[in-house]
């Protein structure tokens, strides 16, 4: 019994009485059971999501950011490989100059009548006088790659010419010959244009156009740039070329040489 306006009377155990209604038909509880089951399904889904995402959220947002950066790097590398510039020599249709003003191996003359190896996957024997038109960069021993390499690569690309890199094999004190691996790494600094790698074991190009390593004339010269016209004539040899409009004009002038 509940007195009017008062609290429920305690039962024999000292607990307050509770009004409990027991339905006569269990079907009346169906709505409550459906709601309970929906809530249980939601709880199980949340648990599954937490189990899956726990390794990613353990260290905050660092893991998703690193994973995204790696994915972008992989995609960029694949696109560069597929669509980037290929180091393929550009053939020339011009004939060699029949009567150059100087003998081979000198400015005004043809390149020396010898051969080198073009390194592109496999080594391909190539006559020096086929290296035209374009610029040959002779790298001294112990060469530290300079920005002028990327500059020449870009300017020759703009003018549909070739750019070759070759190491001077002559010794220079403690400095070792620049290896093919180092040449390729230097060529890789060019983001526009693709330098081609030459192997000149006899040092024919270096002996003809570059100052001897360790000599007074070679001090601080860096790269030696040999400018070759479409007819095979060497128009100019520049020790330690610098980036800028003057270099751009020298490359452009080869087209009309």
Jot down its keywords.
single chain; 7-stranded mixed β-sheet; 33% helix; 6 helices; 257 residues; 7 strands; alpha/beta; Glutaredoxin
How would you characterize the overall build of this protein?
This protein has 6 helices and 7 strands. The protein has 257 residues and is of the alpha/beta class. It folds into 2 domains: 26-83; 115-256, 3-Layer(aba) Sandwich (Glutaredoxin), CATH 3.40.30.10. Strands 2-1-5-4-3-6-7 form a 7-stranded mixed sheet. The chain is rod-shaped. The mean pLDDT is 83.
List the helices and strands and how they pair.
Blueprint: H1 30-57, H2 62-83, E1 115-120, E2 122-127, E3 134-139, H3 147-158, E4 162-167, H4 180-187, E5 196-199, H5 204-209, E6 224-228, E7 234-239, H6 245-253
Parallel strand pairs: 3-4, 4-5
Antiparallel strand pairs: 1-2, 1-5, 3-6, 6-7
* Structural class by secondary-structure content: alpha/beta
Poorly predicted residue ranges: none
Shape: rod-shaped
SSE string, helix = H, strand = E?
HHEEEHEHEHEEH
The major β-sheet equals: 7 strands, mixed
What's the level 1 CATH class of the largest domain?
A: Alpha Beta
Q: Write the CATH homologous superfamily of the largest domain.
A: Glutaredoxin
Mean pLDDT reading: 83
- Helical content stands at 25-40%
Find the count of extended strands (DSSP E, 2+ residues): 7
């Amino acid at each position: 019994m509940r007195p009017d306006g008062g609290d429920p009377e305690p039962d024999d155990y000292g607990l307050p009485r509770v009004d409990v209604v027991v339905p006569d038909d269990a079907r009346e509880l169906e709505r409550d059971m459906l709601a309970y089951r929906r809530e249980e399904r939601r709880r199980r889904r949340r648990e599954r999501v937490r189990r899956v995402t726990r390794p990613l959220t353990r260290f905050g947002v660092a893991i998703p950011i690193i994973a995204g950066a790696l994915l972008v790097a992989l995609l960029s590398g694949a696109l560069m490989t597929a669509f980037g510039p290929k180091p393929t020599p550009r053939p020339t249709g011009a004939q060699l100059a029949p009567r150059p003003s100087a003998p081979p191996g000198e400015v005004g003359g043809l390149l020396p009548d010898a051969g080198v190896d073009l390194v592109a996957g496999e080594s391909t024997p190539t006559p020096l006088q086929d290296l035209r038109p374009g610029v040959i960069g002779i790298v001294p021993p112990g060469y530290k790659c300079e920005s002028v390499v990327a500059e020449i690569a870009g300017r020759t690309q703009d003018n549909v010419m070739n750019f070759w890199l070759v190491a001077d094999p002559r010794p220079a004190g403690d400095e070792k010959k620049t290896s093919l691996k180092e040449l390729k790494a230097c060529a890789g600094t060019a983001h526009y244009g693709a330098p081609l790698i030459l192997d000149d074991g006899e040092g024919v190009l270096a002996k003809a156009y570059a100052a001897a390593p360790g000599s007074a004339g070679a001090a601080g010269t860096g790269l030696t740039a040999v400018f070759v016209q479409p007819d095979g004539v060497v128009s100019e040899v520049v020790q330690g070329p610098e980036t800028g409009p003057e270099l751009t004009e020298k490359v452009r002038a080869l087209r009309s040489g």
